[in-house]
Write a structure and sequence with these properties.
With 186 residues, this protein is an alpha+beta fold. The protein has five helices and six strands, in the order E-E-H-E-E-E-E-H-H-H-H. It binds iron/sulfur cluster.
Amino acid sequence: MLLHSYKITRTLPCLADPEKIRAIAEISDEIHEVFPYLNAVLKGCIYNHPALTLTIKKDGKLFTLHAHHITLAKIEDEKEAEEILKWLADLINETYEKRDQIEPNYSKGAELRALDIYKLLPGTSCKRCGELTCLAFAVKLVGQEIEVAKCPPLFSEEYQEKHNVLVELLHAAGYNISTKEDTKDG
Ligand code: SF4
């Protein structure tokens, strides 16, 4: 068994979807050894081998496995978070036990979609980034033609949680990101 236990230590509102929550669970063991095997058996994962994170998309929800903790986004409530963590723990342990029969996959996997990014932007289309709309900004961000730092509103307190989730998602997907606000005009 690779993962023996887990415990939800924090829940936050999920501002990507205000009706949902975001849960963070500390885990008893380092689990990164199983990431390339999970990346091989699951579809649509975003694997960042250097950063040791694996993001799993399932039923419109987002689960990011780190070496020492797990974050769950777009969750209904703590009860659902517990059910997902149990599913993840079983998946991690079963995959780890069968690892000799699985060809590990170290590729980054699925690409981020502009719509995934757009949902984490302020959505006001204020044009301060130089783009006409937030969606246009999202398209450029996913293509790595612009940086998060070019969107000043994201650095305000109002959008702090969206900013945090966006940075986490980009980081998990292996993007090089500047987390400092760009104070220059445009
Ligand atoms: S600066 Fe941010 S909020 Fe304003 S249009 Fe650009 S991406 Fe949207």
